[in-house]
């Protein structure tokens, strides 16, 4: 299996949780501006970055994601006033914990992308996908049962 | 444009790190240039010529050596295009083509005159120390 | 088990060009719950919607997945379609295979593969959807307009005209805004005051419009239809009821040190002042920073001279609380600070001025009574240089990356007016591009060149230096390929404009988003240009982006129309995607209430039946009219009692699972 | 009685290597500070034969904490059944104490009686059990209460005794003889007199200690055979439970370290491509224990707590000729977070010799 | 050996006799010196009540249920238990009026398992004299230093001051402020791990967490894990699972558990004390506490019920999640 793998180019699986008001709209703007980013990035729409439960992130890794990114409104611009501030604390602590457990810190990320930042959305996703490609397959937080 | 010249243009872009496409052709660089009248090609033309790949013309021009490296054009450019870096890069191309520096770093102090801008001295050291 | 129909839209070639729509439809046919799949050229068209309605009926569908453009575009459309066919509108999920797939991926296989996955995620989510019903809330039939410039005035007038109460909150002592400072307006050259002041008077006279001048918005809470706003009324120290507006006080005031804001600091005003003759309300205001009485307790000349006994030094700041159904932001703009542009010497040379300062110098009511004189020595300038794009289109960090839009036209106006009034004056305009898209705009600019002989130089000025009372302007003329040197008497800079800085605070209070340049973001750049993404908040004028007067007025009226549409409703249907607490799982720990931005969570003691065990428990209860559905509470809740309808934990995890499969 | 062999303590690694060469060898290996678990031997293993109780008991080798039963592959709307039980291979389980060895027979009567649990059965058949006599029992030991002789462990295929210098080896079953045959090159024949005496001394010494243990007097008269059925209701409704259960946290520690607890749950895991059906240890302490479609038959922690001890001391013996499903290993005494354990229960029902 | 101080016992008797309380939450003796069990006593059974250096359990969680019963219960709470009690009050889980908190002093609690680790086997009884513990065992008398056999949670004691009480049994012993007993920081263990490479940390945690038998003792003993139904027991949560069928489940369980108690964990150390596999679970919770202290300012759950909890509050200047990537790159 390993041998076959080396022939095939590694394509990471990236789950992006995007808040409905800023980052999802930013992704739409990237789309309408035709600013491409890898198809490996799959977006899940959530109302706010504060809706992202750490369980979702771990679930994504369990099911075979190689990277998870949470994108929300810029601090201060949250549609719900304060959601991203809570998300910021939660994700900071969660990422720190993952790092503490020796899980590659680069696999998780939070970015603030406004509805006007289509270019930033695209650039961020390109860069993140590249980082994850370089890291290779998620091995430390995988569930082999899901990979067959 | 010959193939060779295309490569040259690429090299200039690479050395300088300048994105000539950012230029909006406002001419502020030339508006601010203190040695404008000494040049047959002016800073804004440098940008446009590099963009068009006319490097050889530039390399042969007197303008290349009349630039004071005062960086006024870099300072003033509203789009951060940095024409002086292009001039510097084209100069390097000339030097590399000659195969060697026509001057050594140690001989720079001898050539310094009072009116020479600081940047030019620093730039000379940087250039000839390579 | 759901009976799901999947409808794949081609969007002409927008989707079908990079995504094999037939393959998407066939690939998801085996997904759990899917009983029907199809594809069609334009799903949002009447034909496409009809197809959906028919399929719902024919196949007994319980939910539909539409693979099309962004849900931000047509989710509402397809929800209506589903509703028309008897489905609950929340049994619709959209797979965004255009903005987030076909438009960004070039390879058709790749695009198709991703579209299939996105469709599968939507199906997985839909399998867990439940019909949702929205709650209803009342609408307070009153609007708030923040900003009393031409944008705010026009919006208020239009709303009042439709019969609704409207309040204008203006932070300065008078309404009128920037337009009041202008002399003439392009391209017709009619006088700004002549067309603005009647509107100001109308606003003041309307019994539906209430003006809060010299006031600021302090806090905003609530939601569409039910905003609660605190307005801070700063003390004028003049009783508006008693004041006759005679102006004697302003003449008697001994303090003359304050720069006159209305005249862009070109002259000074008293501590008690009326910004300009036609100010509304025509009531002076005392500047506490300048007033000798307020600072030292001595003086009081104004009080002594006021026959109406209107001066009241005991006035205090007042907080007014009002309820509104809709809020319009019309916070306007200001010219940017030119501190970063020392090449033009604005800071240290009095004869280098901004265009707005020139407006005041040309205005009959201005500091020079309309005679064009140099600020430095009061002489007539004979040679004037205009420099365009100062700080506009600037990505170097000193200025703004955008085009300020109005500068080309007002510069042409200024040049023309000077040449008209003082034909012996030489006028040069340095320009990068001359942008004149607008009715009669280019004709106007050409007249400046052709009829008035304004010297337009294609190029930018690199340096302005002072020498012997003259301004040495060095710039490039790109057409003649030479460096030009002009000895000018006056240099006028067309400074970029930026949103008024108060907008940041207001945006935060309104939870309206702003872009990187601090312009308020519209709900959709093309289709909803006068609405903010926050329901019930609308945008009017330059706070949304640079625009000239006719555009501002047009947008102001458009915003008013939106407000009128909202206020005309008796009930608003809420967002059914709200938080909900499972009473059997709730610990009553109060953590969710701590993170709720709307105070939507209360705790109640309720008897619950936990598998036969009846007991009274303290549990969370969500006010569905107040909850906006952010979901902050759901993550704070450790037991998972709190969930968000429409975005349940199970639904999102199902999407994750489908994507990662 | 079969022949006794011996090997010097220093050469035990050679013995492990020789066994490993033919079969997988599981034995107590250090798994943290002051604790050990049965693990597969490798030359890196830190074997600790002097540890009395491994944290989890030896039952895990026959009845693992979780194991795959079957898989369902889903493609479109078709479901395919895939047998993916973990393969069982021949193995040797070395260093099993008398209590754990006894637990196998308790598990056997559950899993090997009709309907036979084939997963358990194949592991049981594949496993050769080498027991190890105790030398230094702990205060928590009360195997004697269940008639177990820690100095001469029964229930295995080979018995061993470890003195300060030698390991003595005696096959007691056909499987044991087979294993011994494979090791003839390593094991040497024991001396009839001196070595027998050494083993007898060890046994005697251990027995002496066992007699002095604080729980040596623990008796199960209250739960004894012929009175069980008539007493069942008395025990079930006894007021003692009202107090005993109160401190119980409802965790599964006692059941998971217990060598005789045999309850399991069967769960499905959705992999995204299909279902993996596995079974895992269950605990009667858990709120979802034996939960069925209608709900849970034991809704309170009292009922669940009582269930565990009723099973060990009443239901099991009532169905298995008076044999209790406890072997007195003392793991629950050492591990319960609140020190509530079977001894306290037995004593609450008067389980001490008068 | 007398296993309860007369003052404490008399106090409890008084409380019952004068009608302040109708029962007492304390400990009951077991078979040996160390196997004490939390128990509720009435006037009739007070004679069986004990409190000594082996009574380590955090009693506050029992008060969730006890305080919702009729009557009023006196609870013997050690200084560290009072943090948990406060936290539970903050979360409205305890009916304050039904509990009479009797603050008892604590000199550190002894872990029999640590004694076994020192080779002290067959423990029957113990005599404590200052810093020396003399164990009576099957294999004779053995002595050791008390600090060598203290529970991990006592080695990182937050101080001997009660955060809340209705009465102290020994007011003279009560310090003015809570001063950590041990000279070293309780975050040393976390720092040590932080200074390892990611690879080393990964190996370390795999080694520890792979031993987890998912007995739920850590969760069930934890005063912060007081949910009526845990997500891991709730099939509707989508993450429930009964067994650590693989590495992922082990990680998931412990990460989510630590996250759910982040900002609420008082660092009472019960998780580590009860783990049958001796997994140093406190290192997970303490990591969150350390991060919270460093990023959002010192915060001790259970110290003051009026303070905003770190995960239900924020400041606009909070660190960005990228700080995890920036600091201590290894």
Please give a structural write-up:
The complex is a heteropentamer of chains A (148), B (130), C (661), D (354) and E (330). Chain B has nine helices and no strands. Chain B has 130 residues and is mainly alpha-helical. Chain B folds into two domains: 3-99, Fumarate Reductase Iron-sulfur Protein, Chain B, domain 2 (Orthogonal Bundle); 101-130. Chain C is an alpha/beta fold. Chain C has five domains: 4-126, Rossmann fold (3-Layer(aba) Sandwich), CATH 3.40.50; 142-234 and 317-332 and 502-567, FAD/NAD(P)-binding domain, CATH 3.50.50.60; 248-305, no CATH class; 334-498, FAD/NAD(P)-binding domain; 579-645, Alpha-Beta Plaits (2-Layer Sandwich), CATH 3.30.70. Helices cover 28% and strands 26% of the residues of chain C. Chain C contains 19 helices and 34 strands. Chain C has a five-stranded parallel sheet with strand order 10-7-6-18-29, sandwiched between helices. In chain C, strands 20-27-21-22-23 form a five-stranded parallel sheet. In chain C, a hairpin with a 2-residue loop joins strand 24 (461-467) and strand 25 (470-477). In chain C, helix 3 (46-58) packs across helix 4 and helix 6 (108-126) runs antiparallel to helix 19 (649-660). Chain C is globular. The relative contact order of chain C is 0.11. With 354 residues, chain D is α+β, with helices and mostly antiparallel strands. Chain D has one domain (4-348). Chain D is built from eleven helices and twelve strands. Chain D has helices spanning 12-22, 98-111, 118-126, 174-182, 194-212, 228-236, 240-244, 253-257, 301-319, 331-335, 342-348; strands at 4-8, 24-32, 35-40, 66-75, 78-82, 91-96, 127-132, 158-162, 166-171, 188-189, 264-270, 274-281. In chain D, the strands form two sheets. In chain D, strands 3-2-6-7-8-9-1-10 form an eight-stranded mixed sheet, sandwiched between helices. Chain D has a four-stranded antiparallel sheet with strand order 5-4-12-11, with no helix packed on it. In chain D, helix 6 runs antiparallel to helix 9. Chain D starts with a strand and ends in a 6-residue tail after the last helix. The model of chain D has no long low-confidence stretch (mean pLDDT 91). In chain E, a hairpin with a 2-residue loop joins strand 7 and strand 8. Chain E has 330 residues and is an alpha/beta fold. Chain E has twelve helices and nine strands. The mean pLDDT of chain E is 92. Chain E has helices spanning 6-17, 62-66, 79-90, 112-117, 152-155, 188-194, 198-209, 217-221, 247-261, 270-274, 282-296, 323-326; strands spanning 23-28, 37-41, 49-50, 73-77, 99-103, 123-129, 132-137, 140-145, 167-168. At the A-C interface, helix 2, strand 2, helix 3 and helix 4 of A face helix 4, helix 5, helix 6, helix 18 and helix 19 of C.
């Amino acid at each position: 299996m390993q041998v076959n793998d080396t022939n095939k180019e590694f394509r990471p699986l990236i789950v992006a949780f995007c808040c409905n008001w800023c980052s999802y709209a930013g992704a739409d703007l990237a789309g309408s501006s035709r600013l491409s980013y890898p198809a490996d990035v799959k977006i899940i729409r959530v109302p706010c970055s504060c809706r992202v439960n750490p369980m979702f992130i771990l679930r994504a890794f369990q099911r075979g994601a190689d990277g998870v990114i949470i994108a929300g409104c810029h601090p201060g611009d949250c549609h719900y006033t304060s959601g991203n501030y809570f998300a910021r604390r939660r994700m900071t602590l969660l990422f720190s914990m993952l790092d503490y457990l020796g899980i590659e810190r680069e696999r998780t990320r939070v970015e603030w992308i406004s509805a006007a930042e289509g270019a930033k959305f695209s650039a961020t996703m390109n860069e993140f996908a590249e980082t994850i490609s370089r890291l290779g397959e998620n091995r430390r937080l995988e569930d082999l049962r899901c990979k067959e | 444009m010959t193939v060779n010249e295309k490569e040259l243009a690429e090299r200039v872009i690479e050395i300088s790190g300048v994105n000539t496409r950012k230029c909006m052709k406002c001419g502020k660089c030339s508006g601010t240039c203190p040695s404008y009248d000494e040049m047959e090609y002016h800073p804004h033309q440098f940008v446009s010529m590099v963009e068009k790949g006319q490097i050889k013309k530039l390399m042969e021009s007197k303008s290349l050596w009349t630039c004071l490296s005062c960086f006024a054009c870099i300072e003033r450019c509203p789009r951060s295009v940095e024409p002086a870096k292009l001039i510097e890069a084209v100069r390097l191309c000339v030097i590399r083509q000659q195969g060697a520096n026509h001057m050594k770093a140690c001989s720079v102090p001898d050539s310094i005159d009072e009116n020479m801008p600081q940047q030019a001295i620093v730039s000379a050291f940087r250039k000839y120390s390579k | 088990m759901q009976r799901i129909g999947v409808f794949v839209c081609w969007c002409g070639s927008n989707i079908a060009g990079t995504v094999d729509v037939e393959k998407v439809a066939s690939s998801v046919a085996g997904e759990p719950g899917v009983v029907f799949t199809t594809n069609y050229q334009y799903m949002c068209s009447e034909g496409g919607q009809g197809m959906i309605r028919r399929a719902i009926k024919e196949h007994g569908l319980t939910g539909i997945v539409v693979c099309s453009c962004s849900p931000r575009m047509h989710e509402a459309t397809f929800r209506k379609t589903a509703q028309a066919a008897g489905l609950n509108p929340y049994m619709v999920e959209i797979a965004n295979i255009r903005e987030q797939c076909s438009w960004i991926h070039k390879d058709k296989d790749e695009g198709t593969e991703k579209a299939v996955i996105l469709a599968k995620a939507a199906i997985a989510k839909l399998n867990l959807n439940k019909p949702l019903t929205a709650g209803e809330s009342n609408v307070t039939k009153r609007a708030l307009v923040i900003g009393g410039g031409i944008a705010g005035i026009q919006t208020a007038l239009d709303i009042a005209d439709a019969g609704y109460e409207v309040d204008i909150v203006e932070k300065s002592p008078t309404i009128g805004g920037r337009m009041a400072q202008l002399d003439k307006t392009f391209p017709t050259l009619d006088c700004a005051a002549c067309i603005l002041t009647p509107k100001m008077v109308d606003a003041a006279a309307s019994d539906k419009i209430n003006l809060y001048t010299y006031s600021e918005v302090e806090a905003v809470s609530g939601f569409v239809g039910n905003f609660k706003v605190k307005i801070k009324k700063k003390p004028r120290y003049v009783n508006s009821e008693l004041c006759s507006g005679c102006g004697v006080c302003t003449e008697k005031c001994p303090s003359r040190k304050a720069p006159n804001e209305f005249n862009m600091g070109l002259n000074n005003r008293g501590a008690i002042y009326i910004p300009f003759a036609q100010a509304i309300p025509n009531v002076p205001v005392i500047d506490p920073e300048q007033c000798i009485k307020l600072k030292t307790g001595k003086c009081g000349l104004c009080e002594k001279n006021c026959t109406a006994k209107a001066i009241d030094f005991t006035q205090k700041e007042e907080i007014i609380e009002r309820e509104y159904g809709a809020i319009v932001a019309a916070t306007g703009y200001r010219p940017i600070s030119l501190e970063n542009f020392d090449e033009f010497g604005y800071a240290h040379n009095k004869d280098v001025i901004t265009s707005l300062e020139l407006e005041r110098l040309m205005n009959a009511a201005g500091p020079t009574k309309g005679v064009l004189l140099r600020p430095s020595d009061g002489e007539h300038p004979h040679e004037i240089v205009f420099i365009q794009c100062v700080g506009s289109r600037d990505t170097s960090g000193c200025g703004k990356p955008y085009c300020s839009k109005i500068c080309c036209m007002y510069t042409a106006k200024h040049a023309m007016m000077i040449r008209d009034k003082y034909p012996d004056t030489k006028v040069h305009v340095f320009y990068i591009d001359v942008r004149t898209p607008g009715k009669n705009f280019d004709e106007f600019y050409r007249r400046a060149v052709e009829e008035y002989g304004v010297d337009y130089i294609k190029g930018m000025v690199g340096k302005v230096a002072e020498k012997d009372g003259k301004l040495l302007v060095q710039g490039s003329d790109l057409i003649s390929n030479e460096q030009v040197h002009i000895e000018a008497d006056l240099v006028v800079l067309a400074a970029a404009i930026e949103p008024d800085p108060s907008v940041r605070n207001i945006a935060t209070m309104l939870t309206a988003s702003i872009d990187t340049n601090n312009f308020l973001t519209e709900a959709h750049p093309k289709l909803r240009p006068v609405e903010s993404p926050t329901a019930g908040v609308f945008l009017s004028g330059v706070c949304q982006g640079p625009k000239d007067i006719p555009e501002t007025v047009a947008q102001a009226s458009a915003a008013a129309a939106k407000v009128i549409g909202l206020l005309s409703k008796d009930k608003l249907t809420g967002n059914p995607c709200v938080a909900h607490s499972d009473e059997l799982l709730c610990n009553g720990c109060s953590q969710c209430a701590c993170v709720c931005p709307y105070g939507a969570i209360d705790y109640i003691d309720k008897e619950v039946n936990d598998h036969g065990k009846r007991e009274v428990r303290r549990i969370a209860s969500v006010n569905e009219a107040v909850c906006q559905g952010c979901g902050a509470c759901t993550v704070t809740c450790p037991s998972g009692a709190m969930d968000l309808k429409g975005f349940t934990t199970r639904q999102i995890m199902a999407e994750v699972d489908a994507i990662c499969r | 009685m079969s022949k006794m062999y011996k090997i010097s303590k220093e050469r035990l690694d050679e013995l492990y290597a020789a066994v490993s060469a033919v079969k997988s060898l599981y034995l107590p290996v250090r798994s943290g500070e002051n604790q050990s678990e049965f693990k597969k031997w490798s030359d890196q293993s830190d074997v600790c034969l002097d540890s009395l109780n491994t944290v989890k008991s030896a039952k895990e080798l026959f009845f693992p904490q979780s194991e795959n039963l079957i898989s369902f592959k889903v493609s479109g709307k078709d479901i395919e059944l895939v047998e993916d039980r973990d393969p069982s291979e021949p193995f040797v389980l070395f260093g099993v104490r008398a209590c754990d060895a006894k637990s196998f027979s308790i598990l056997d009567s559950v899993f090997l009686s009709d309907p036979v649990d084939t997963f358990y059965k194949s592991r049981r058949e594949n496993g050769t059990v080498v027991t190890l006599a105790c030398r230094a029992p702990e205060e928590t030991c009360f195997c004697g209460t269940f008639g177990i002789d820690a100095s001469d462990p029964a229930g295995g295929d080979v018995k061993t005794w470890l003195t300060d210098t030698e390991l003595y080896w005696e096959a007691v079953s056909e499987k044991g003889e087979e294993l011994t045959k494979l090791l003839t090159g390593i094991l040497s024949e024991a001396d009839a007199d001196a070595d027998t005496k050494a083993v007898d001394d060890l046994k005697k010494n251990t027995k002496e200690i066992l007699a002095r243990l604080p729980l040596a007097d623990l008796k199960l008269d209250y739960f004894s055979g012929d009175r069980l059925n008539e007493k069942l209701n008395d025990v079930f409704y006894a007021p003692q439970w009202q107090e005993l259960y109160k401190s119980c946290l409802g965790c599964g520690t006692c059941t998971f370290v217990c060598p005789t607890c045999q309850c399991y749950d069967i769960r499905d895991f959705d992999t995204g491509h299909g279902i993996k059906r596995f079974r895992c240890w269950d605990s009667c302490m858990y709120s979802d224990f034996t939960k069925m479609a209608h709900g849970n038959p034991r809704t309170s922690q009292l009922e669940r707590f009582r269930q565990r001890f009723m099973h060990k001391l009443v239901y099991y013996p009532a169905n298995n000729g008076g044999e209790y499903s406890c072997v007195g290993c003392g793991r629950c005494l050492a591990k319960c977070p609140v020190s509530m354990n079977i001894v306290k229960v037995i004593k609450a029902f008067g389980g001490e010799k008068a | 050996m007398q296993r309860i101080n007369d003052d404490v016992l008399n106090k409890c008797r008084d409380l019952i006799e004068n009608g302040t309380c109708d029962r007492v939450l304390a400990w009951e003796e077991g078979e040996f010196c160390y196997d004490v069990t939390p128990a509720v006593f009435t006037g009739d059974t007070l004679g069986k009540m004990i409190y000594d250096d082996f009574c380590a359990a955090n009693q506050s969680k029992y008060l969730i249920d006890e305080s919702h019963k009729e009557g009023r219960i006196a609870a013997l709470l050690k200084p560290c238990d009072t943090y948990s009690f406060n936290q539970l009050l903050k979360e409205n889980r305890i009916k304050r009026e039904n509990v009479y908190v009797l603050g008892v002093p604590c000199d550190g609690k002894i872990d029999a398992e640590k004694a076994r680790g020192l080779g002290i086997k067959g423990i029957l009884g113990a005599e404590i004299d200052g810093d020396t513990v003399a164990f009576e065992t099957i294999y004779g008398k053995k002595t050791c230093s008390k600090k060598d056999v203290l529970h991990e949670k006592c080695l990182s004691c937050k101080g001997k001051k009660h955060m809340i009480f209705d009465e102290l049994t020994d007011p003279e012993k009560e310090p003015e402020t809570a001063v950590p007993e041990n000279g070293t920081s309780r975050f040393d263990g976390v720092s040590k791990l932080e200074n390892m490479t990611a690879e080393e940390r990964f190996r370390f945690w795999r080694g520890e967490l792979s031993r987890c038998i998912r007995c739920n003792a850590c969760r069930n003993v934890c005063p912060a894990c007081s949910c009526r139904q845990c997500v891991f027991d709730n099939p509707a949560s989508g993450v429930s699972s009964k067994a650590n069928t693989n590495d992922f489940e082990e990680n998931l369980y412990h990460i989510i558990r630590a996250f759910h108690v982040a900002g609420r964990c008082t660092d009472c150390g019960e998780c580590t004390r009860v783990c049958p596999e001796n997994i140093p679970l406190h290192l997970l919770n303490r990591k969150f506490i350390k991060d919270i202290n460093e990023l959002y300012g010192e915060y001790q759950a259970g110290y003051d019920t009026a303070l905003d909890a770190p995960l239900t509050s924020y400041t606009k200047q909070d660190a960005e999640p990228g700080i995890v990537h920036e600091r201590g790159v290894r």
